[in-house]
Amino acid sequence: MNLSQVEIKQLPKIEDDRGNLTFVEGGNQVPFDIKRTYLIYDVPGGEARGGHAYRELDEFIVALSGSFNLHLDDGTSQLKINLNRSYNAVFVPHGLWRKMDNFSTNSLCLVLASTEYNEADYIRDYNEFLKYTVANA
Ligand code: TYD
């Protein structure tokens, strides 16, 4: 995988005097069947989450509230995306190193995932990740 497969998406936004509504559908805005969702929240100032890659797992990441930076790396190039709107999302395909940091106070990150949790799918060592990218080029 390389960074060209990352997709920054604008989700549908139904504006209404009563408040806005945004939706996501598996197989539509999300290009996979959603098997799992998880939230990242109450991140103390200065902390980072992630710092690993997945061999198989694809993810779809939304800043439901607040903001944070998403750092992506394909072993050759790096990309930083600031997520700060509920209707913006990023499709992160498997095979990329990814980290989130610079979480604002009360930020809430939603992750939609293509597989169930599987620790064996993680690559947690950056040098191992670099070898993986060379082997899978
Ligand atoms: P991890 O994915 O390593 O978090 P981060 O990348 O944000 O630092 O997960 C942290 C812990 O939570 C780890 O022990 C596994 C557990 N976990 C689950 O049990 N299920 C899940 O769906 C996720 C994402 C994590």
Tell me what the structure shows.
A hairpin with a 6-residue loop joins strand 2 and strand 3. Helix content is 7%, strand content 42%. With 137 residues, the protein is mainly β. The mean pLDDT is 97. The relative contact order is 0.28. It is built from one helix and twelve strands; from the N terminus they run ββββββββββββα. It has one helix at 126-135, and strands spanning 7-10, 13-14, 21-22, 36-41, 49-54, 59-65, 68-73, 78-83, 88-92, 97-101, 108-113, 122-123. It binds thymidine-5'-diphosphate (TYD). The site of thymidine-5'-diphosphate has 7 residues, from strand 4 and strand 5.
SSE diagram, text form:
Blueprint (H helix, E strand, L loop, with lengths): L6 E4 L2 E2 L6 E2 L13 E6 L7 E6 L4 E7 L2 E6 L4 E6 L4 E5 L4 E5 L6 E6 L8 E2 L2 H10 L2
Antiparallel strand pairs: 1-9, 2-3, 4-11, 5-10, 5-12, 6-9, 6-11, 7-8, 7-10
The structure holds thymidine-5'-diphosphate (TYD).
The site of thymidine-5'-diphosphate has 7 residues, from β4 and β5.
